[in-house]
Sequence to fold (167 residues):
Amino acid sequence: MLPVARTRDEARLYLDLTPCTCGEVDADWQHATGLLDGELVSVYDATCPNCDAEREYTFGLPEHEIAADYPNFGGAEPSQLIDPGRWMDLADHLAGNLPADDSETVAQALQFAAAAVAEVMKFIPPGATAVPADAFWTPEGQATYNAGPARFHRTRLKITQQTYRMT
Ligand SMILES: [Zn+2]
Fold:
């Protein structure tokens, strides 16, 4: 089964977080929708500007794409591309690198950070109070969890999210 990219915003974020094997992050991604084994899929390809490698990523499409304000990472179901630790890293990075002199950029970064925290919360199973340890499937995400598991409790996440929304 292909991992589902719930929205284009999510697919692009995943690509931004996934460097080429040579380490290059930049790429001019071309997007196409196609058929693979009878399923509609979303294909992104690019030539690495550093090492000329052909890079291609194929994602499944969600059953329903939710229209919402930017950034729109997906519906209520948790991401299959980006684990909760990496979402938290993203929120930390955005909120920790705010420009001092550009209020519009600050507002957008915090909106993005709040949306990333909302993505972390989608990994909390129904009836549970925290993201379970086995929800983290990348080494980066697991490191973030191990550095502060308490941050992944629902209450803490809500506070973090509201802080970003109010700032
Ligand atoms: Zn490369």
Summary: The chain has two domains: 8-60, 84-166. DSSP finds five helices and three strands in the chain. The longest helix spans residues 103-121.
